[in-house]
Amino acid sequence: MSCLNRSLNLLRAVMRHQIIPKANISAKPAKHVLSTGEQVFVMVTMFVTILGPSGWVLANLEEYKKRPGGAA
Predict the structure, then answer these.
(1) Virtual torsion, Cα 38, 39, 42, 43, nearest 10 deg
(2) Residues contacting residue 71 through CB under 8 Å, at least 6 positions apart
(3) What residue intervals traverse the membrane (predicted)?
(4) pLDDT tens digits for 14-65?
């Protein structure tokens, strides 16, 4: 039991001396306001980048199943 107490005291001592940085929270407006066209471009790019490959795999899933050496 004394070993557990020593470990807890050591843990408390280590945690007591850690420096925790403060978050820089600002309520200022954006320096550069994005236009609607820029927002649409970014959303479409993210959509194609993330969902495009997974959609391709799902669309060709039956073809992948028929390949020799594929999953049984």
Answers:
(1) -150
(2) 64, 65
(3) 40-59
(4) 776 666 777 777 778 888 889 999 999 999 999 999 999 999 999 999 988 8
Distance CA 12, CA 18 (A): 10
Q: Which tokens belong to 47?
A: 């959509």
Confidence label for 1 from pLDDT (cuts 50, 70 and 90)? low
Domain that holds residue 30: 1-65
Please state the domain count of the chain.
Answer: 1
Q: How far is CA 59 from CA 1, 17, 34, 56, in A?
A: 60, 55, 35, 5
